[in-house]
Amino acid sequence: MIRVEGVSVDVDGTRLLHDVDLHVATGEWVCVLGPNGAGKSTLVRALAGFGGRGAHGGRILLDGADAAGLRGRERARRLAVVPQTPVIPAGMGVTDYLLLGRTPYVPRFGVERATDHAAVAEVIARLDLGDLADRRLDSLSGGERQRVVLGRALVQDTPVLVLDEPTSALDIGHQQEVLDLVDELRAERGLTVLSTMHDLTLAGQYADRLVVLAAGRVVADGPAAAVLAPDLLKATFGVNVRVIADPDGLSVLPVRAPRPQPRP
Amino acid sequence: MAATTTTTRTLRPVLVGVVVAAAAICCGVAFGPASRIGPGAALVEVVDRIPGVALDSGLSPSQAATVWDLRLSRTILGLLVGWMLASAGAAYQGVFRNPLADPYLLGVAAGAGFGATLVIVQGRVGADPSVMVPAAAFGGAMLAVFVTYLVGAAGDRRRTPASLLLAGVAVSSLFTALQTFVQQRHASDIRLVYSWILGRLSTAGWGEVAMLLPYVALSSGVLLLYGRTLDVMSVGDDEASSLGLDVNRARFVIVLAASLGTAGAVGVGGLIGFVGIIVPHVVRLLGAGSYRVILPVSMLTGGAFLVLADLVARTALAPAEIPIGVVTAFCGAPFFVFLLRRRSVGVAT
Questions:
Q1: Using CB atoms, which residue from A12, A104, A114 is nearest to B244?
Q2: How confident is the model at residue B127 (pLDDT cuts 50, 70, 90)?
Q3: What is the CATH number of the domain that holds A22?
Q4: B68-81, pLDDT tens digit by residue?
Q5: What is the least distance, in Å, from the CA of A113 to any CA of chain B?
Q6: Better-scored residue on pLDDT, A219 or B197
Q7: Rounded distance between C-alpha atoms, residue A153 and residue A110, angstroms
Q8: DSSP-derived pairing of the beta strands A65-66 and A56-62
Q9: Domain boundaries, chain B
Q10: What is the mean pLDDT of residues A81-90?
Q11: Cys bridge to B275: B85, B132, B151, B257, which one at CB 3.0-4.6 A?
Q12: What is the pLDDT of residues A106-140, one digit of tens each?
């Protein structure tokens, strides 16, 4: 569904992605990991089609079509993005915000039609947003806001969902809630999901496959059991971890490096 | 069902705006410094001119001409200028996601001031100043916006709102400096230049209305078409483009339309401040969230506001006139302070 072939991105003369290859099969959830500055957000931006236009080599195929050749609206019908820090327009109501997700379907100077309102109503029902529908965006809590932003992406009705750090602003309970929701929707709608994530344990529990970026290059690509290895994580994140396997999956536990013993 | 609510939500505020604008027009026609014309008679006189209506206002032909050619034309001109400045302000605020944006942001005012000053100091050339000054102001305004776009779009990165705003600041300073230089070289004309800068709606007949109307019609038409686009742009450039919008093109078209109309309004009305900032914010404070409501209601209430401001300008110290820019600033400045003190201004920053 998503095929990234040899993509390099230069921004202001600095190469942020080096010849990245990445493949996400239809219905698969792939999670991109990597330390700050590894190029995760750059990859998301390249997929979403904004920023660095003309600055990358290689190509990105969405469902077989070269993304560079797609008009904005066509791309927006194939791929929806949940940004890391969404811009929340003050004063806008939740329902109006969700309707923005229909932009790729609303004629350029037209108005939303019955199908657009129906799509919004369906997402409101599915994500339990009924109580929020008449609220203003700026009155929502962080968790509610994240569900609404996810809702806008779903209203876009795309086969591919790209989530940039979907849990970074949420507490532990809401993190699980959002990721469970994404997973359920993936099953129901046959969505292909590509996310970036900081929490290695959560990434391992939810994604089918993990891809590790370091300094703009792919350094690992495989199932959690292969990628979440102390040596690899030490090399890319510079972190000491213990990986604990139990029936619920892998847990990555940071441990403090042994300190040199003070001399007596 | 949802579709009907959207329509009602748009329609009701627009109808209120129509009533407010109509009331302001009535006030503008009914009152004036010519005390021997009664308010009722003046309104009857205007209604009498509607084809198919025959009423007797009891006014003499010269009084009737005063009402029709002076008061009504000036009222309509005020309506158009306020309409244009308020909607352009709303559009600028939307496009730049900046609550303090006004239609003069990209150099329209400085460019128009330079153009008008050039013509005013060359007044001895002999051409009709009532045509030449608006034309030069219009030309200067469009030139300034053009330069701003050229500068703001330079460099290898894409045009960001911030780079355009900074370019606007630079271009404004440049044109203001040029204008000041020309003005100082022709000190004898300072009073004329100043009276233009402070804004005035003095008319003799319908010439200015005819001059401005095409720009207002074109600009308003485009802006109203882009109402939904402005809503989409409120989530920022990146997200708007991920929703399939060509953000740079939309911004260019909206800024061009708003600047074209503003240049026309500035040409005939001078640099009337505050209308473009205040009116859209009042409309937002009253609860409008979508640009599909903010734009039309700003047009109507902006027009009404300027008609009433002009009424004050020409009657408060009659027979002398207060520059209308002074009146709008007098109402506007306190409101501006109030706006700044509010914690949440209705535009994302």
A1: A104
A2: low
A3: 3.40.50.300
A4: 888 899 999 999 99
A5: 7
A6: A219
A7: 21
A8: antiparallel
A9: 2-341
A10: 90
A11: B85
A12: 998 888 999 999 999 999 998 989 999 989 898 99
Give yes or no for residue B159 having a pLDDT over 80. Answer: no
Q: What is the pLDDT of residue A21?
A: 92
Average pLDDT over residues A32-51: 86
Structural domain boundaries, residue A184: 2-88+159-254
- Residue B139: φ, ψ to 5°: -60, -45
A70 vs B contacts (CB less than 8 Å): none
Would you say how long chain B is, in residues? 349
- Is B216 exposed, middle or buried, given 0-12, 13-18 or 19+ CB atoms closer than 10 A? buried
If one counts the domains in chain A, the total is 1
- Identify the pLDDT of residue A223: 93
What ipTM was assigned to the predicted interfaces of this complex? 0.89
In the structure encoding, which two tokens stand for residue A244, read together? 């604990």
CB atoms within 10 A of CB B23: 13
Print burial letters for A184-219: b (CB count within 10 Å at least 16), e (below 16).
ebbeeeebbbbbbbebbbbbbbbbebbbbbbebebb
CB–CB of A78/A63 below 8 Å?
yes
Query: Sign of the C-alpha dihedral, residues A78, A82, A84, A85?
Result: positive
Fold of B2-341: ABC transporter involved in vitamin B12 uptake, BtuC (1.10.3470)
Q: Please give the angle made by the CA atoms of B65, B67 and B73, to the nearest 5 degrees.
A: 95
- pLDDT at residue A52, as a whole number: 47
In a domain, A195, yes or no: yes
**What's the mean pLDDT in B280-287?**
84
**Cβ contact, residue pair A91, B289, below 8 Å:** yes
Which of A71, A79, A83 lies closest to B239 in CB terms? A83
Interface test with A, best of B242, B249, B282 (most A CBs within 10 A): B242
Tell me which chain A residues have a C-beta less than 8 angstroms from the C-beta of B11: none
> Chain-centre distance of CA B150, in angstroms?
24
- Give the largest CA-CA distance in chain A: 80
Q: A131 lies in a domain?
A: no
Q: Residue A103: list chain B partners with CB under 8 A.
A: 232, 243-245
Q: Which of B3, B156, B225 sits opposite A114 (nearest CB)?
A: B3
How many residues are recorded in chain A?
Answer: 264
Contact at CB, A90 and B157, closer than 8 angstroms: no
Question: Does the pLDDT value for residue B130 go beyond 80?
Answer: no
Q: Which residues of A touch B156 (CB under 8 A)?
A: 12
pLDDT of residue B1: 40
Domain membership of residue A113 (yes or no) is no
Question: pTM (2 decimals)?
Answer: 0.88
Contacts of B2 in chain A (CB under 8 A): 95, 117, 120-121
Taking contacts as CB-CB distances below 8 angstroms, the residues of chain A near B238 are 45, 48, 50-51, 83
Q: What are phi and psi of B217, to 5 degrees?
A: -65, -50
Note the pLDDT of residue B341.
Answer: 73
**Cβ pair B102, B92 in contact under 8 A:** yes
How are beta strands A14-24 and A79-82 bridged, if at all? unpaired
Token look-up 């790209």 returns: A162
Residue for token digits 């009535």?
A: B26
Partner-chain contact B289 A93, CB within 8 Å: yes
B221/A contact by beta carbon, under 8 A: no
